[in-house]
Amino acid sequence: MLDRIEFLLSEAFVSLGRNKWMTFAAVTTCAMALLLLGGLGFAYMKIDQFAQSLPSKFEISVFFRDKVPADDAKRVVAETLKMQGVDSVRFLPKDVQWEVLKKEQPELTQGIPNPLPDSMRIRLKDLAAAPNVAKELAKKPEIGGENVKYLAKEQELLTTALGAVRLLGLALGGLMLITSGVLIYNAIRLTVVARRREHRIMHLVGANQATIALPLLLEGFVQGLLGGLIAFFAFWGSFAVVRALMISTLQVGGTEVFPITSSLFGFVAAGGVYGLICSLLAVRGKTLKGAIG
Amino acid sequence: MSMAKAENGPPHLAFDRVEVYYSALVAGLKGVSLSIERGEFVFLCGQTGSGKSTLLKLITREVRETKGQVSLLGRDLGQLPDREIPYLRRQMGIVPQDYGLLPNKKVWENVAYAMRAVNRSKREVRAKVPQILEQVNIMHRADAFPYELSGGEQQRVAIARALINDPPLLIADEPTGNLDPTHSAEIMALLSRLNEQGTTIIVATHDIPIVQRLQQRVVELEFGTIVGDTAAGETWSPNISSAEYTTFEEKETDYQFDGEEFEIYLEEPSPEAAAEETGEPTHEEETPRA
Predict the structure, then answer these.
(1) Nearest residue on chain B to A208, alpha-carbon basis
(2) CB A200 within 8 A of CB B100
(3) Alpha helix positions (H), chain B
(4) Which residue on chain A is closest to B88 by alpha carbon?
(5) Mutate to test the interface with B, among A7, A198, A205 (most CBs of B within 10 A)
(6) Closest listed residue to residue B11, CA positions, set B210, B200, B209, B245
(7) Residues of B at the A interface (Cβ-Cβ below 8 Å)?
């Protein structure tokens, strides 16, 4: 068994050594593709996390129309709580608000009737739900469109930023991934051509398909694996640089910890699997059914 | 003459009304029926395109018959699943016309590599390679690269490689096609010796003098059909123009063939023959093959 593994490994590494430049091109392109996909994926995840934390900072303020009965206001509060994306609703009766204001600004409030409407403050679980919640509330006769206030522009900006990062990651990463796939495929095809004599001998003496195909699959796997490893180190370096920049310029981000284990495993596994898939595509047909005559 | 023919059981190879069509218009074989017994030595003769190679490819399952049946020891090769083809090929030794040696590997490495490819351990390789090289009389060149060998020596290495699985059947495609008469004789002597040890030998060849000299069974093909089947021991003469077969000019001279003297016809003596006449060694004088 060990003998067989040694033979298969030696066959795979002979090929890697023979096609040095093609291997180099395939490995580096694969690394760049994984770095782009992984790096931008990580950036997307971080922005998304930030966006998730924003609803606690952003509140939708809703003001009831004059003379809305207390029961109707309570019903609206109950309905709002059931809306998708809503985390909590705080009802603020106008009398309570007026009492607070009178204590804070006694001179300003002296001798005038309470001008404040009943209101509520809505916190969201999902910032993306804000437009829908606002739209639904604006339809209610107890409230009216002009009485719903929230940070629509900020929310829109964040959504656009997330979309752009996602699109950029998918477009650039996808393109690089296809390029690296073609390069790995070509490297394996070159190996098939370079090793046609050996493959012919193998067919001639009755080597089974696994003996012929495994070194080729192993070669693609190793190329992907190396690409993943390089991508991991590049990503680690980029993370350290970005973190240092954020600390020095924005004084934020110092608590971020680089996820070494999950990143290493993710990049290496993704690279290995991708290399294996590309080499599987390359090792078909004639390679395994080669002519011997 | 075959020495080890088996008397019982199915024939080693049987072709029953076999047809092979590569396309609607291109036929490889047209209704060939043939039986080859275990331990037989059979020459397949015929001009290029006669169907010799197709017949060999049917045995190695490089092609599948369009009609009819090809059997190896009673087993229908047409029904053999693709995954079992490697195991079929381990039951035969295949010697290609161009030797198929790996140029960057030494003689012993060529044989060892083939053994490793069929999952033999290093220990088995160490034990068996010298034995096989001795068997084909090439041990003295074990550390040479193929380009340092003569055509005959390269052919011996190819035969050595074909013997790694101890095959009961050896198939050689034009084994003397690239060789001068001296080396052709050496190779045929080697094949005869293997046949005497019980191996069934099938040789596709154009080499009329060799075929006539050995007096083994000759199956002659033309346009995909068998046009002659001469039994061993009978004198064979080609059914079709010998010009189609001739691979070298004709002039009478004497050669030693496996201890038995015989004649090959040449226009002029080859440099090797000339060297032999003057008593000089021939191996060192041969131009190395690139």
Answers:
(1) B86
(2) yes
(3) 52-60, 85-89, 107-117, 122-135, 151-162, 181-196, 208-214, 271-277
(4) A206
(5) A205
(6) B200
(7) 53, 56-57, 60, 62, 82-83, 86-90, 94, 96-97, 100, 102-103, 113-119, 121-122, 161-162, 164-165, 173
Alpha helices in A82-151 (DSSP H): 94-104, 106-109, 130-139
What is d(CA A159, CA A153) in angstroms, rounded to the nearest whole number? 10
Count Cβ atoms below 10 Å from residue A196 Cβ, excluding itself.
14
Of A198, A206, A292, Cβ closest to residue B96: A292
Give the nearest chain B residue to A5 (CA atoms): B119
Within 8 A of B53 by CB-CB distance, chain A residues are 293
Give the span between the Cα atoms of A290 and A165, in whole angstroms.
47
A147 confidence band (pLDDT: 50, 70, 90): confident
Kind and range of the H or E run holding B93: strand B92-95
Q: What is the pLDDT along chain B (290 residues), one digit of tens a residue?
A: 444 444 567 889 999 999 999 888 888 899 999 999 999 999 999 888 889 989 999 999 989 999 999 999 999 998 999 889 999 999 999 999 899 999 999 999 999 999 999 989 999 999 999 999 999 989 999 999 999 999 889 999 999 999 999 999 999 998 988 788 888 888 999 999 999 999 999 999 988 888 988 899 999 999 999 999 999 888 887 776 555 554 433 333 333 334 343 333 333 444 444 444 444 443 333 333 33
> Can you tell me whether residue B192 is helix, strand or coil?
helix
The rounded distance, in Å, linking the Cα atoms of A224 and A277 is 10
A:B CB pairs within 8 Å? 73
Under an 8 A CB cutoff, do A205 and B118 touch?
Answer: yes
Q: What is the mean pLDDT of residues A168-172?
A: 78
CB contact under 8 A, A205 and B90: yes
Angstrom distance (rounded) from CA B41 to CA B200 = 6
Give A-chain residues touching B164 at CB under 8 angstroms. 205
- Helical segments of B142-287, H only: 151-162, 181-196, 208-214, 271-277
Those residues with Cβ within 8 angstroms of residue B24's Cβ, 6 or more apart along the chain or in another chain: none
Q: A291 and B62 in contact by Cβ < 8 A?
A: yes
Where does the pLDDT of residue A146 fall: very low under 50, low under 70, confident under 90, or very high at 90 and above?
A: confident
Nearest chain A residue to B98 by CA: give it. A293
CA B102 – CA B122 distance, rounded (Å): 19
A222 vs chain B: nearest CA distance in angstroms? 21
- Residue whose pair of structure tokens reads 């080669």 in the numeric block: A290
The alpha-carbon gap from A272 to the nearest alpha carbon of chain B, in Å, equals: 25
How far, in Å, are A161, A252, A254, A282, B222 from residue A242 at the CA level? 18, 11, 11, 39, 78
